[in-house]
Amino acid sequence: MPMTAPLAGVRIVEFAGMGPGPFAAMLLADLGAEIIRIDRAGERPPSWAPNPALRGRRSIALDLKDARGTAIALDLVARADALIEGYRPGVMEKRGLGPEVCMGRQPALVYGRITGWGQTGPLAERAGHDLNYVALTGALHAIGRHGQPPAPPLNILGDYAGGGAYLALGLVAAILPARSTGKGQVVDAAMVDGAASLATTLHWMSRTGRWSEERGTNAFDSGDPFYDVYATADDRYISIAPIEPQFYSELRRVLGLDGPEWDRRSRADRPRQRAALQAIFRGKTRDEWERLFEGSDACFAPVLTPQEAPLHPHNVARGTFIGDGVQARPGPAPRLG
Q1: Dist CA 315 CA 305 (whole Å)
Q2: What is the pLDDT of residues 102-144, one digit of tens each?
């Protein structure tokens, strides 16, 4: 990483974990930070299939239940700008590596803690996973089709967006004043807080009557037939999302949708419009639709599988994915400079 990288010269000690902690460290490493990962002794990741989320750091395996391992960890922390840990509240304190001890060795240390429920609150000590945290924010209730139960949104919303990305932002925000004041602080990054923050607009729309709690009846939850995915003749899928009038007009032009029955302002027409669109898109393969929409502003994109995505011409041109075959993986984002 060149010394001109925005976080060059920042050193962060990462205590091994899963999901959001390593993701936050990956983001920071991609921006130039030096990451030293402390793996659990005897639990190093397999070398035959390295996890791309662990890129950009050196590692050392320590037994933190042993006094010697704890002493080495403290020595590393004493020379660091920040720390990342993702254990349940109190675990680091029991190991002699809590904030008071670590910041006693390094007063300017930013102590990053990532958990599902946060360091405080009635649920702080309880086990949980991404789906549980998102469920508590109101966001999960809004995800799904009409007449169907809420649909799990993978583990992206809680673990990675609401967790790891918010932790990385919090660490950078806290490192800036620590470098000028010499005083660090604890960053309490809770996935439930981050997921709730991501749903800010959803909550605003709900409280102002712009969002119905009945799933599948709103603009962005498949309630609008012109903001949805459709099956094609080869049992693959395409997506359309022409929200603005000019883009909707372009979609109608490409598909040849003429007549007043295509007025999208009438909710009563939505079932008939959806059925018609289903039949239309079933009439061609996904590749045929791609060619037909090429160069159009109709807000169209094919629904690609994880195997297909690295091969799409746009992703290839931008270098969105790096590596080939089994090693293909998303590259650093965002891009600076």
Answers
A1: 13
A2: 999 999 999 999 999 999 999 999 999 999 999 999 999 999 9
Catalytic residue among 81, 159, 193, 221: 159
Is 203 catalytic? The answer is: no
- Specify whether the CB–CB gap between 241 and 302 falls below 8 A: no
- In 131-252, DSSP assigns E strands to 185-190, 228-231, 237-240
Cβ(42)–Cβ(69) below 8 Å: no
Inter-residue contact 151 to 10 (CB < 8 Å): no
Reported pTM: 0.93
Q: What values do phi and psi take at 188, rounded to 5?
A: -95, 95
β-partners of residue 114 are 189
Q: Please confirm, yes or no, whether 258 is among the known catalytic residues.
A: no
Residue 277 CA, distance from chain mean position: 31
Contact 29, 166 (CB under 8 A): no
CA dihedral over 87, 88, 90, 91, signed as positive or negative: negative
- Indicate the helix (H) or strand (E) that contains 192: helix 191-198
* Overall size of the chain counted in residues: 337
Cα pseudo-dihedral 50, 191, 157, 201, rounded to 10 = -150
Chain segment 287-315, per-residue pLDDT in tens: 999 999 999 999 999 999 999 999 999 99
Contact 184, 110 (CB under 8 A): yes
Query: Which residue in the list 63, 75, 129, 287 is annotated as catalytic?
Result: 129
